């Protein structure tokens, strides 16, 4: 595999100028879907108009990494007590870093269901009874917005779990929060607390 260097010349077809000579250099390269850019990537540009016309293989990992870092918004409106339960669990795991931990805790569960299709299939059924019970207790009409920014790959994982569980985004988050309530908020000694505290400590450093 050939490695290219800044200043090296080449040839390519430019969308505007046809067959042209090119020069390799470091540029901000837009993602193919236009949703953001990978910054400072070695790419070949058209010598006539300056458009990026070629990406050498050595730049692919950096573009992929930038793509994964690009954040997708993930929003849901939930009755306020759901978010209070979530925050309480976060506080129990990472008292000093609770607000930041919301996303990570939710995504920890998303990953878990993403990797355990059987459990994900049951989520819908489990939710029905747990939700009915919880919502009869809370009698709350106050709604709060859960607003997260997640990586593209996380966003895909959320979608995958929604598909397997046949749940809307709101119901998926409700069912995860109820699971978190059962796992982390209610027990005197939550089973996974040590593990989650370890993760929180690593993320905090
Ligand atoms: Zn051109």
Question: Could you write a compact summary of the structure shown?
Answer:
The protein is of the alpha+beta class and 205 residues long. It has helices at residues 60-69, 80-93, 98-115, 117-138, 152-165, 169-185, 193-204; strands at residues 9-14, 18-30, 37-46, 52-54, 71-79, 143-151.
Question: Your description of this structure?
Answer:
Strands 1-2-3-4 form a four-stranded antiparallel β-sheet. The model has no long low-confidence stretch (mean pLDDT 89). A hairpin with a 3-residue loop joins strand 1 and strand 2. Helix 2 packs across helix 6, helix 3 (98-115) crosses helix 5 (152-165) and helix 4 packs across helix 6 (169-185). It contains seven helices and six strands. The protein has helices at 60-69, 80-93, 98-115, 117-138, 152-165, 169-185, 193-204; strands spanning 9-14, 18-30, 37-46, 52-54, 71-79, 143-151. It folds into two domains: 9-69, Ubiquitin-like (UB roll) (Roll), CATH 3.10.20; 71-204, no CATH class. Helix content is 52%, strand content 24%. It is of the alpha+beta class and 205 residues long. The chain is elongated and about 70 Å long. The structure holds zinc ion. Zinc ion binds at residues 14, 16-17, 20, 46, 48-49, 51.
